[in-house]
Design a protein that fits this description.
About 45% of the residues lie in helices and about 15% in strands. The protein is α/β, with parallel strands linked by helices. It has two domains: about 30-200; about 210-260, no CATH class. Helix 4 (about 45-55) packs antiparallel against helix 8 (about 170-180). The two termini are about 35 Å apart.
Length: about 260
């Protein structure tokens, strides 16, 4: 389905009497983004799975989880109040931990403490034998999210709750790094994720220019070139500054890139 969407072959679907392109529908439904991202998790190799968990949850938590057992999408958890239900986006079960995920798409909604509290409480009620709970808040965390995390972890300290807030740009950057070391199987899955993010208007950030320095040799021969570029950047921001560039000093940099094409 994702391949058809990416190539404009998914067609249209009728919703409330209106024909809507699947591509546009995908962009507006966070559930579709959730399904693409976590639905492919079981197909990663063990190394890539661990790397992805470290990206989402941090290395310390990821190292404790072990082998993935099951994934539940949009489980209905009894809230204990008037027989109501709450519905977290994903519930991932590991041997001794449960990871609950609340997803907010990049351009809509916001993470809320009240929603976190209701979902954690409902999951706690569902468990016959208490096991540590990890809550991943993915996307759209407010500026005061650290205060929300501290309050909730204190409230559910008996459940050994840990809360991790992660933003989409962090996931995008981390997946780019994973791709560099991934086997063919994992790289195909990662590319699917990046393509899906593209449909949601997320673009992978380009690495800062300074990250190229370590790939150039010998770096000391290029110091004059970088000094020129730094001066150029400072002058172009000034309306009345002289725009005289010492192009000759840039030649070692040009030659370094040309030789490595």
């Amino acid at each position: 389905m994702l391949t058809a969407l990416l190539h404009g072959k998914a067609g249209r679907v009728e919703i409330e009497g209106k024909a809507v392109a699947w591509r546009e529908l995908f962009r507006k439904r966070e559930d579709l983004l959730t399904g693409v991202l976590f639905g492919r998790l079981p197909y990663l190799t063990a190394d890539a799975h661990n790397a992805f968990l470290s990206l989402l949850l941090g290395g310390e938590i990821a190292s404790e989880l072990g082998t993935l057992q099951t994934i539940e999408f949009w489980p209905k958890l009894h809230s204990g109040k008037h027989r109501g239900f709450v519905e977290p986006d994903v519930l991932i079960n590991y041997p001794k931990h449960r990871v609950m995920v609340e997803v907010k798409p990049p351009h809509a909604g916001v993470q809320r403490l009240e929603q976190w509290r209701a979902e954690v409480r409902a999951l706690e009620l569902e468990e016959d034998v208490a096991s540590p709970i990890v809550l991943l808040a993915l996307g759209r965390n407010p500026n005061h999210s650290s205060e929300m995390v501290a309050a909730l972890q204190l409230e559910f300290s008996d459940a050994r709750l840990r809360v991790v807030c992660r933003e989409w740009w962090e996931v995008m950057r981390g997946l780019g790094a994973m791709m560099a070391n991934a086997c063919i199987q994992d790289s195909r899955i990662i590319q699917d994720w990046l393509d899906a993010f593209g449909l949601f208007g997320m673009a992978n950030e380009r690495a800062p220019f300074g990250d190229l320095f370590s790939h150039l040799s010998p770096v000391e021969d290029l110091s004059d070139s970088f000094d020129v570029l730094t001066h150029w950047r400072s002058t172009i921001s000034c309306k009345n500054a002289a725009r005289v560039i010492d192009w000759q000093s840039l030649m070692p940099l040009v030659q370094a890139f040309k030789s490595d094409e």
